[in-house]
Amino acid sequence: MESRAKLLGHPVHQMLIPLPLGLFVMAVIFDALALATDWNMAEVSFWNIVAGIATGLLAAVFGFVDWLAIPANTRAKRIGAVHGVGNVVLVLLFLGAVLLRRDIPDHVPTTPAFLLEVLALALGGFTGWLGGELVDRLGVGVDDGAHLNAPNSITNRDADEGVVVRPVAAPRSR
Fold first, then answer.
1. Other CB atoms closer than 10 Å to residue 168's CB: what's the count?
2. Residue 168 lies in a domain
3. pLDDT tier for residue 90 given thresholds of 50, 70 and 90
4. Count of H helices and E strands in the chain?
5. CB of 144 within 8 A of CB of 1?
6. In this structure, is residue 86 part of a structural domain?
7. What is the pTM of this model?
8. For residue 135, is it within any domain?
9. Neighbours of 38 (CB within 10 A)
10. SS3 state of residue 21
């Protein structure tokens, strides 16, 4: 199924997700450096998280629009739900980290705040894999002829196993 929210022919959700991902990863790296060395990038990290939350919520809106268009009772619908809910939890974990350090000078992370960030990134690894499964394996947001019930990519089964493929009509000549 093709994405319902496109810009210049490309899915908006897929264009937006690198923003929060990159901001969150760099925030955790900067915080790890701030905690382990004298190089303090904690304030940059704090604002990376704030920007990551904002862009993550924006990406979520377009992801939700695409998820609503996935046919019910398909593997893609179930995976999309877990992917979406997991990413909302991820954003909430980063929000918790921001709230824990908002009143600290230079926004240096506390241990609980940093642990929330690391937990959120671990969750993001899983939800990112699910997003890849949706796009790369199931073709969601890519093609109307997608295999919305293709088996899990970890099983090493072909995506076409057990899937009925409809023939493509030849283009009409004028």
1. 7
2. no
3. very high
4. 5, 2
5. yes
6. yes
7. 0.80
8. yes
9. 6
10. helix
Distance between CA atoms of 90 and 48, rounded to whole angstroms?
Answer: 15
Which tokens belong to 91?
A: 């954003």
Dump pLDDT digits (tens) for 48-82.
999 999 999 999 999 999 899 888 999 989 999 99
Query: Where residue 106 falls among pLDDT bands split at 50, 70, 90?
Result: confident
Strands 6-7 and 10-11: antiparallel
Domains in the chain: how many in total? Answer: 1
For residue 125, being part of any structural domain is answered with yes
User: Is 19 a residue whose pLDDT tops 60?
Assistant: yes
The domain of 40 spans 6-155
pLDDT at 58: 96
Could you give the CA distance from residue 97 to residue 121 in angstroms, rounded to a whole number?
A: 12
Could you give the 3-state DSSP secondary structure of residue 67?
helix
Can you read off the two tokens belonging to residue 16?
């937006």
Hey, is 7 helix, strand or coil?
Answer: strand
Identity of the amino acid at 88: V
DSSP at 11: E
Surface-to-core class of residue 58, CB atoms within 10 Å of its CB (0-12 exposed, 13-18 middle, 19+ buried): middle
CA dist., res. 106 & res. 73, Å (int): 49
